[in-house]
Amino acid sequence: MGRLRNRAVELIAKHAGSYALEAQKTKWVVELVTKVVLEGKTDADDREAQIALLQAEVAALQEGGRSAAAAAAEEARLLRQQLQEVEAALYNTGFTLHTLQREHGEMAQALAAAEDTAQAAALECQQLAAAVRRADEQDARARRSLAHRAFHLKTALLDASSRLRGAGDADRKEYREAEWRLRERERALASDRAALLEAREEGDARDALLESFMLRVHAAEAELARARAALQSAQQGPQQQDATRQPAQQPALRRQG
After folding, report:
1. Is 17 left (phi over 0), alpha (psi -120 to 50) or beta?
2. Domain segments of the chain: what residues?
3. Distance of CA 55 to CAs 12, 58, 65, Å?
4. 153/147 Cα distance (integer angstroms)
5. Are residues 39 and 11 in contact, defined by beta-carbon separation less than 8 angstroms?
6. Cβ–Cβ < 8 Å for 20, 13
7. Coiled-coil regions in this chain (predicted)?
8. Which of 70, 105, 128, 143 falls between 20 and 30 A from 212, CA-CA?
């Protein structure tokens, strides 16, 4: 309190001028100035406290700002990292998209090629089916023709056999004609056999039928061989009779034979 009074006296001496001594002796003036000084000091203390509080708040704000700046920097770093990851993902996605587009193009080309191949295969199947139908028709015609020829051959062989059994000197001309016909039939039989062999090479599916025809041809050949043997026997019989009856005509008969 003494310090405040001394401060009040100093202020009075400083500001009262010629009335300083009188004012210093006046109690209420001194008390008034002391109160003013005290209030000023209180105000100053309050202001200092406010300043300290404000400084503390400023320090807290600065610390918060530094923390916020650090957090913002960390967040920015994380955002940059995420951005890099997103850019990498976008690059990978673009590369994958390009790869998928290329693969799609290749698949489309492969599909088009497969469709072309399928169309070509279908056309080839149609052509093969038509060829099979034509081959079946030709085979049916060949079977009918061979059956007809075999029938006529068998008929001719039977006729020749029946004729040869009663052949004699008067039937030599007919014998020669029959022999000529037999030779023609033999050539036709050889032609038929060649046709059968060619037909057998066209497919395994006709083997059974061809084998049946071959058996018939072999039977016809055997019948032809027997007919030839019978014909030769019939020829030798008249020649032997002529040899005993007309020895002088043997050279002529040999030339005719």
Report:
1. left
2. 2-73, 138-256
3. 35, 5, 14
4. 10
5. no
6. yes
7. 44-138
8. 128
Residue 26, classed as helix, strand or coil, is coil
In 182-199, which positions are buried (b, 16+ CB within 10 angstroms) versus exposed (e)? beebbeebeebbeebeeb
CA-nearest of 173, 161, 179 to 256 is 173
- Greatest Cα pair distance, the chain, in angstroms, is 216
Burial of 57 (0-12, 13-18, 19+ CB in 10 A): exposed
* Residue 172 tokens, joined: 């030599």
Whose structure tokens read 């008249």?
238
| Residue 88 amino acid letter | A
| Of 209, 32, 105, the residue nearest 23 (C-alpha) | 32
Most confident of 14-23, 58-67, 79-88, 165-174: 79-88
| Amino acid, single-letter form, for residue 91 | Y
Q: Which uninterrupted H or E stretch holds 155?
A: helix 27-165
Match 């089916």 to its residue by tokens: 129
pLDDT digits (tens, 9 = 90+) for 141-169: 877 777 777 677 677 767 766 766 665 55
Do 147 and 212 contact (CB within 8 A), yes or no? no
Residue 256, both tokens: 């005719």
Q: Which pLDDT tens digit goes with each residue over 55-78?
A: 888 888 888 878 888 888 888 889
Alpha carbon 157 to chain centroid distance?
65
